[in-house]
Amino acid sequence: MRLSGVELRQVRLPLVRPFRTPLGPEYERLALLVRVVGSDVEGWGECVAMPEPAYSSEYVDGSVEVLKRFLLPAMAGVVGELTATALEAPFAAVKGHWMAKAALQTAVLDAQLRLAGMSLAEYLGAVHSTVPAGVSVGIADSIDDLLAEVGDYLDAGYRRIKLKIEPGWDIEPVRAVRELIGDGFPLQVDANGAYTLTDAAHLARLDAFGLLLIEQPLPEDDLRGHATLARRIATPICLDEPITSARAAVDAITLGAAAVVNIKPGRVGGYLEARRVHDVCAAHGVPVWVGGMVETGIGRAANLALAALPNCTLVGDVSGSDRFFTRDVTSPFVVENGAIAVPTEPGIGVEPDRDVLDTVTVVNEWIVRM
Ligand code: OSB
Ligand code: MG
């Protein structure tokens, strides 16, 4: 594959309802899409960085900058066949910037697999043709509003509910939702690091609600705190933010800081490392699930392929396009009988609709020389 250029396209999609997390409220998704173009093939990837460095240090303008100044030149320097694997060594010379790397690596992988006529699901080793749908529910204005929203998701067929929690919005909303959905229904919470170890006794009160897990209760750099907390609460701890590589996953597991791991391809630099995280967790007997970053259909398609791997035994933040968007840039992913179909076409298996794309594009840069 020889590339003639790369497109960096920022799209702005309004959300169907505000998504409030401990990191702040989101009203729209400003997403950076990366398109690599060769003579007879093209490939797409989505950068999951947000406009502000709130979830991690990455943010959209920073991703654009690092792509243009460092990652595209690193890609141009690849000698021999351009593949996702060939990008790993040159990208390792650039520290961090996992989301920017993941977007470009995915675009190349998409193009490479299209040429080979192979789906991403097959390439990664998927064993399921559909994956159960889970939904991440933001902090609401009131318990009544929360119950109404959760009720809508139950009606839509979602098989697992995740509630965002923070100090002041935890025990009571969890209690109310548990009463609504009944004892056996899969329920978990995510704090995005909003607590400290001094909250251990308070967090232990969540043990009464039979949660599958509590995700990232403490700040991302507090691995030892998570290990201590794990001895003070019965709810299993799942880590998200600090798991930036397979090695980081093994460290967290070995320290006793994580009994479950959330895999986000953007957070670990792409689908190749995401599969390695999946594999090392399996080797340690640790279940994983695929997280979400409010992706458009481009990122959602690829996440579905990953979620179909054998050790993704917990339901992920893999929801239908209409969970977030009225009109996605691809044809929408739909929840049917509580599950979403894994794309089967070559590569990530979807393409953006050009007309929709043009109406939602806010910035578009075409880079010929890298
Ligand atoms: O912590 O899992 C998170 C969305 C944006 C940033 C961080 C997180 C989330 C979610 C997943 O909760 C939302 C989704 O895409 O379904
Ligand atoms: Mg999370």
Describe this structure in words.
This protein is of the alpha/beta class and 370 residues long. 36% of the residues lie in helices and 21% in strands. The chain has helices spanning 60-76, 84-92, 98-116, 120-124, 143-156, 171-181, 200-204, 223-232, 246-255, 265-268, 271-283, 297-307, 354-360, and strands spanning 3-21, 24-38, 42-47, 130-132, 134-137, 160-164, 187-190, 214-215, 237-239, 260-263, 288-290, 339-341, 361-367. The strands form three sheets. Strands 5-6-7-8-9-10-11 form a seven-stranded parallel β-sheet. Strands 3-2-1-13 form a four-stranded antiparallel β-sheet. The chain has a two-stranded antiparallel ribbon with strand order 4-12. The longest helix is centred in the first third of the chain and has 19 residues, at 98-116. It binds 2-succinylbenzoate (OSB) and magnesium ion.
Give a summary of the structure in a few sentences.
The protein is of the alpha/beta class and 370 residues long.
